[in-house]
Amino acid sequence: MQDTVKTWLTEGTVDIFLGYKMVEGHPIPHGFNRDRLDEIDEMVTGPARYPLEKFATQLLQMHPDAKIGILARDCTKRALNVLTIWQQISPGQIQTLQVNCCPSPLGSNTDCSYLQPADTGAYKAAHGVDGSQSLQALEQMPEEERFDRWMYEFQKCIKCYGCRNVCPMCFCRECSLENKDLVGNGHLPPDIPIFHLVRAVHMAGRCIDCGLCEQACPAEIPLRMLYRKINDMMGNLFDYHTGSSPDQPPFSLLGDKPSTGLAPMTAEAAKNE
Amino acid sequence: MECKFVHSVCSYCGTGCGILFQVVDGRLIGTLPMKTHPVNKGKLCIKGWNLHEHVNSELRLKNPLIKTFGRFSRVNWDTATRYTADRLQEIIKKHGPDSVGVLVSAKATNEENYLAQKFARAVIGTNNVDHCARL
Q: Per the CB < 8 Å rule, is B1 touching A15?
């Protein structure tokens, strides 16, 4: 792997390679370039995961002609697909070096256990939403109970904006979460559930289920579960599969000419709505 | 093109969260929580997430200021230290060492806090040392 990166850098395939470097026992993200080829010997693939694709997008904003290499898990590839669809990166500007991956219903290789949810405590299991269960298991609870459980989770929010800050899909210049008409300033918890639902709606057709938001959440709100539900609806209603569908999601289209074929709503999906 | 991440400790409170500063082409552009840090384990509060902003802020105070005749004027560090020492000596001579108090901070390092109390006890000669976290 190190040799591949060295070759890419020396032959000019890429100008910078985003991976991880071991620094004082901590794997931290690092941009390897051809001026410091010796650093590549310290390159590691994990286990900590940072939004490398977000860093790549930021670098391309500053250097639009740069060629970037990136250490890629399955979620990185989905992220790059969606970023290309949203015209944040151009295809061909980013070279990926595939490494092992973590489990997600959107991915196929699942031999890394890094994203296995932590054990759920008794109080959370009784009153909150257990992020380790499946979406189907959660939906078997009565609607009112589910609402109460989600509200319990949302009221823990300390409004750190970490979910948005770490999200590789959050590239908007203006964020609805900072719009004072939607989310008031200076209140804790933030306006719930609007704060989380605004973000959830914006994740429709964008969330690539990398799980970084949930890992960054100091209040341990099961955000991944929330966005999985959104993606599930996108699949059921619009036959849109984030990360693999080649077009923008139908929500982004104005007018009546959708570029994605609308799948007929199944009886089961209709009942769920 | 250079993109590196510099690990550090958040300077906002005494918790000591591990952070990474995102540096692109020599300019600080972002802060991230350190995933493997034993204190915060990849999480941060809103202040930590925005730590880079005050470094680049135009409002940041980079020089000592001395207030004379109701106005602040910029001076160099030697002048500021000299002025502070003279005024402290003047006050101690007139009102005694216990007229001075030293307030230290959770945002400073252990070593800096140690030095501050040493300064209060050994140099000024007072036990008036307190800490912002002892509220």
A: yes
